[in-house]
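Subject — a protein and its fold

Tokens — whole-number codes for backbone shape
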Amino acid sequence: MSLIQVRGIMDRLAKKLDRPQGISKISNRLAWPLWGKEDIYEGLYAIERFKTVASTCMILGIWDFTQEMPQYLQRLSLDQMDHHERNATSTLEFAVAGNQERNQHSSERDRIIEWFSPLNFFPRQADVLRSREPGTGEWVLQDNLIKHWKSKAGKTVWCRGIPGAGKTVLASVIVEDLRTDLDYSDAGVAVIYLNHKESDSQLPDSLLAAIWRQLVFQKPYSSSMRELYDGHRERQTEPSLNEICAVLRLTISELSRIFIVVDALDEYPEDLRDVLIEHLVALGPTVNLMIFSRLDIYLDRTIPELGILEVLANEDDIRRYIDGQICKSPRLANNIKKSPSLRGEIERTIVSRSDGMFLLAKLHIESIVKQHTVKAIREALKNMPGDLKRAYDELWERINRQSEEDRNLARRVLAWILNAETLLLLSELVEALAIEPKSTELDPDNILDPNIITSVCAGLVVINEEDNLVRLVHYTAQDYLEEIQDEEFPDAQIEIARTCFTYLSFHKFGQGDDIDLQTTFNENAPLEYALLFGLIHARGDPEHRIISDILSLLSCLAPSTGESEIRWQRMASVHASLPRTRLGIAAYFGLLHVAQRLVDEDGFDIGALRGATTNGHTEMVRLLMKSQGYREHVEAQKASTARRFPLKTPSDDERTQSATHNITSLQRASLQGDEEAVYMLLESGVNINEETRPYGTALHAAAACGHLPVVCILLAHGANVNAEVPPYGAPLRVASLGGHTDIVLLLLENGAQINARAQDGSALAAALSRGRKEVAQLLIDHGANVNDTGTPGWSVLARAAENKNCTTAENHVCSNI
């Protein structure tokens, strides 16, 4: 090192150790704990090395050239030590402040990420990797198609295979490889694991947000995200699909390469599948997409230039898995020790009987490890099934061969997992199993050991260590159990409903003035599930058999006493706009048989209709609207509207003003299908039958757009079902024009005049002009006039023939002309 280099180092250190005044002084103090000390240490170390060299030079007699250097270094060292002593306290203070600021920022970051994407696939990825036998699945990384996909931007690969081929594990292997191998500062990797039991929470917007969450892992996110969060936080709303897509695209634009892996697309609802794929494909040319699924879906028609990898269980992987299970099972290892040739027999038989399914190999080895003797193992190998159906049959037989107590427990566990409306947490399941009929509190001594649960279920049930969710071993197990459900679990829905009812009736849930909901849910694992789904399990056939239990629970929930009010508040905390009456709660959950009884006992209430429309229970809506109480309610509403808004003949000026009148708030809410806003506006006293152009009345607007719940609300509040608004005519005609069969039927049931004509003819003519065959058939069945001329010069038949839409109604029309 030269003297010039040393002098440069010392000058830089002198500047760092200088003590400026004012704001710059604070800035330097902050810089020290954050980054400056490493730089200073490096400089001091360089100087120490030069001092050693200088000492050597002096020994060699090169004193004159370096005589000032030691004194200079000594002064610098003393100044530096003095500087540290004077600033030790202030440095510590600012270091603590810096840590607090970083912690605060981290907490805020966590809140924003959790708000934007509650769906988190990191635990699922970790759990799948943990269940994988080391070394298995790595063959996929050597496949030329996968290598090409990894190296070229904008490529899509479809990895398709039979059930149980090990696709989920392969997806996790590829994701782990990408996250390990790539420069994470310049690339992003995301995975989504789809599950048919989680489809309600795995909507396209949630999945896209979950991708964003993984792409910003340990990376900064844009300032626009904070602005989005602040805006929604004040309104207490969630981000829209468009906002999520915009945020995701912005994040993608800041990275050079993006890899997205989608597992089990075949388990995703078909009506949402195309929406998800469309958004994923539209993310841009830097995105590489990989999709895992069964063979029975069609992607090559929707994604151009699609690479296809056929997935089968790899024989080497199966052998590795078998070896791993032998090592984990002392019983099996001892039997192999007695008969060393047994290992080879096990491997050959399981590999040959697996038929390309890793799942089948897994089920086979699990049946082998439970055998007690070498003879029993060889007998099991001889009778080993060669297909998945037979494998499940054998597992079911093993369950039934257990003691009565174990067999009954296995059936209860499987009934819960099979019929649960969502995946269950282990804590939810074990406490649900501990609830005893007619009990008033949970006995902690009745809680089962999780190992007993998995043992009695013969390998059909697994517990994820990462997220403590209880699952069936594979979705094919769900299919198998559903096939035998009617025979083996005929009362499952009733037992689950009764268990939930018993739990909700516990004394402690009717006590306490200050309800801390989060603490209550945390301390009572099954409570949230029971509140959300208990009455849903009772819907349909179970209603007839347990109606007394349902009515008892409804009486506990409908606020009448302080205890009922507390129970209702807990239920309302997880159900938006929950009605407060027995009939209202029954209608909200679609309990049709119960509502038939309550509408006579308790009488009609508008909250019940609101609950039914909110959740789309069409049959419940019809039941309520056919009741005498509903008709009396509507007449009262009409009378009230007539008093507040008396009819009068508009003047010419008023007609002109109406033609250009701005859309009313009620019409806008009806057009948008905003049920809550419609209710609020009607309760505030707006004129339900006010007309404006071009939308007519609010009922016209809702009927034209197909918003059945809003139509129900408007009718219940006295909307004029036969209001004529030129040139559209009555609401029945605009609903027929739009092809909204359910609304057409509802209007007819509420007094709509079927043959009322507008400028372009009747509702039937309107339906046929747009090819609305089902609506036309419905109108004809209800007595529509097939001789209506429609547009001047056009008959109904001519209109149908012109549009080639007479296949449904032609015979009816022809026979009546």
User: Anything to note?
Assistant: The CA atoms of residues 385 and 391 lie 6 Å apart. The chain is about 60% helix and 5% strand.
